[in-house]
Amino acid sequence: MVKDIIKDARKRMQGALDVLDNELKGIRTGRATPGLVENLEVEYYGVPTPLIQLATISVPDPRSLLIKPFDRSLLKAVEKAILASDLGLTPNNDGQNIRLNLPPLTGERRKELMRLAHQRAEAAKVAIRNVRRDAIKDLKEAENEKMISEDERKRGENDLQKVTNEFTDKVDEMLKEKEREIMEF
Fold first, then answer.
1. Which residues contact 180 (CB under 8 A, 6 or more apart)?
2. How far is 113 from 24, CA to CA, in rounded Å?
3. Nearest-CA neighbor of 13 among 137, 171, 167, 174?
4. Which pLDDT tens digit goes with each residue over 50-99?
5. Do residues 121 and 168 both lie within one domain?
6. Residue 56 is part of a domain; what is its CATH number?
7. Among the three residues 101, 132, 156, which one is the final residue of a domain in this structure?
8. 177: domain range?
9. Checking DSSP bridges between strand 55-61 and strand 64-69, what pairing results, if any?
10. How far, in Å, CA of 6 to CA of 27, rounded?
11. Span 17-25, mean pLDDT?
12. For residue 103, which phi and psi values (nearest 5 degrees)?
């Protein structure tokens, strides 16, 4: 019973980590990466669809991205999605492809990106703590229903705290790595 609750909490905490990883990929660094735009929502026949499903995204050089839509009629929609995003990039449409040139980051823009990364990391930590809170509630309910003893509940809470610490440490590691990438020239 206790192991099941902790296993479920671990799975949900991993989900929060995966979301953070995806969000951090979308934060621009000094170098061009497909992760910057692959999750942009593009309007495709009235349905918001991730860009990765509609085009190939390549990195011809460290400061630019090349987006080749599978369907050329999508060029305007892709352009519109890029302009609407908070990336601050201007797409160059040549009629077949879209090229994104990434200008060097200014000191102020780096600070902005760092703030954004910190906000996303804090949101992930809050999500992890919420999972812990829910799991503790489940443990207390199991104890009240006489499914587990008080000792098992306390052991479960201690194990749960260890798992929580493990995941918050992973969030900190991911944030440090992103900070390093942002500050890289």
1. none
2. 10
3. 167
4. 999 999 999 998 888 999 999 888 899 999 888 888 777 889 988 899 99
5. yes
6. 3.30.1360.40
7. 101
8. 2-24+106-183
9. antiparallel
10. 32
11. 89
12. -70, 155
